[in-house]
């Protein structure tokens, strides 16, 4: 966005914070990009969290005038909460430069410790207000995630607003089941059905939707600072190379998603194909993969291919070998 910031807050008014959460591949980055490209005249500071040592999500955020802060040394609900506090405290020193803060968590984040940050730290609590936890839900895969991923259930339970996304990929019967599953976990959140996270932003931003009383009914120990542990079965592999052979790469991805698709929770990458002036973005969940050109490579950035797989019981060595075979020889 190029619009100048609107003075929507005074020097003493707390800055609204929206936490965007949802399991791997649900569509959080798509929602974030919609927020950043809508013509609403506001400016946001954006904090993006990564799972894995190679940062990709930050580069999947569209080019805007907003400042994007990337944290990829751990989950935002665990080891980097101190980093989150420091970033927010730094932002608070920039009076009038933005209208709100958007936090996109990793898909494995439990939203409770993230929300705790805005109550446990005195400085942050005094200068910000948690406006809403917005959870993006994958209509096609939610039932499976509720069976094998406790984080997915936590994300639904703590949501103030739920975007039931990808409704175009399910039958009416499947959609009815997903609605029922959501209501069984969280009967209070507002549910908005979407395709590609297309939603009126006034429905999710600056709504004052966060309800501490309700959260305490879900988690009585919400205001107790404790430690959060992930499902240790989920791992990631981060792959890097220079230019790739596109034919070999697509053969590799098709082969691996067919063979290992049920265990691939997420794949995402930014790729440099030989003789292609544009960056190619690929994203997928299980066996569903899509990709497209994003923008030209800039002169000031290296032509580097980065690909991340997140999943359970994957053939990690095979993924690395298959990716390496796609390299263009120097």
In brief, what are we looking at here?
The protein has 330 residues and is an alpha/beta fold. It contains 11 helices and 12 strands.
Task: Identify the notable features of this structure and list them briefly.
single chain; 330 residues; alpha/beta; 7-stranded parallel sheet; 5-stranded antiparallel sheet; 11 helices; disordered N terminus
Tally the beta strands: 12
> What is the strand arrangement across the widest sheet?
3-2-4-1-5-6-7
Distance between the termini: 39 Å
Give me the number of helical elements.
11
Instruction: Give the structural class.
Output: alpha/beta
Approximately how much beta-strand content do the residues carry? 25-35%
Oligomer: single chain
Description:
The chain is an alpha/beta fold. The protein is built from 11 helices and 12 strands. The chain has helices at residues 28-37, 57-60, 81-91, 111-120, 122-127, 142-148, 150-157, 172-185, 212-218, 246-260, 316-324, and strands at 15-21, 44-49, 68-71, 100-104, 128-138, 161-165, 190-193, 234-241, 264-271, 278-285, 288-296, 305-312. Strands 3-2-4-1-5-6-7 form a 7-stranded parallel β-sheet, sandwiched between helices. A 5-stranded antiparallel β-sheet has the order 8-12-9-10-11. The model is unreliable at 1-11, 51-55, 60-67 and 70-80 (pLDDT under 50).
């Amino acid at each position: 966005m190029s619009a100048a910031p609107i003075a929507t807050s005074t020097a003493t008014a707390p800055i609204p914070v929206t936490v965007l959460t949802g399991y791997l591949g649900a569509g959080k980055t798509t929602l974030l990009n919609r927020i950043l490209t809508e013509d609403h005249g506001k400016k946001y500071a954006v904090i993006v969290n990564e799972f894995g040592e190679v940062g990709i999500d930050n580069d999947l955020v569209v080019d805007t005038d907003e400042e994007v802060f990337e944290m990829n040394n751990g989950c935002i609900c665990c080891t980097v909460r101190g980093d989150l506090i420091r970033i927010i405290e730094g932002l608070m020193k920039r009076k009038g430069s933005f209208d709100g803060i958007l936090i996109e968590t990793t898909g494995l984040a439990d939203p409770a410790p993230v929300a705790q940050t805005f109550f446990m730290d005195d400085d942050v609590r005094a200068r910000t207000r948690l406006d809403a936890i917005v959870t993006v839900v994958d209509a096609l895969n939610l039932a499976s995630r509720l069976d094998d991923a406790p984080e997915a259930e936590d994300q639904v339970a703590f949501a103030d607003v739920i975007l039931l996304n990808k409704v175009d990929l399910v039958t009416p019967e499947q959609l009815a089941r997903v609605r029922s599953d959501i209501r069984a976990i969280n009967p209070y959140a507002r549910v908005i059905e979407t395709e590609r996270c297309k939603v009126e932003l006034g429905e999710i931003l600056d709504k004052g939707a966060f309800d501490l009383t309700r959260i305490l009914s879900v988690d009585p120990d919400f205001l107790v600072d404790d430690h959060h542990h992930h499902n240790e079965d989920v791992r990631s592999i981060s792959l890097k190379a220079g230019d790739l052979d596109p034919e070999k790469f697509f053969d590799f991805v098709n082969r691996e998603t067919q063979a290992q698709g049920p265990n691939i929770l997420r794949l995402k990458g930014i790729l440099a194909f030989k003789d292609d002036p544009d960056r190619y973005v690929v994203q997928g969940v299980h066996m569903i993969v899509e990709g497209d050109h994003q923008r030209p490579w800039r002169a000031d950035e290296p032509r580097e291919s980065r690909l991340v797989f997140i999943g359970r019981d994957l053939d990690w060595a095979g993924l690395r070998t298959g990716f390496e075979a796609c390299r263009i020889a120097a």
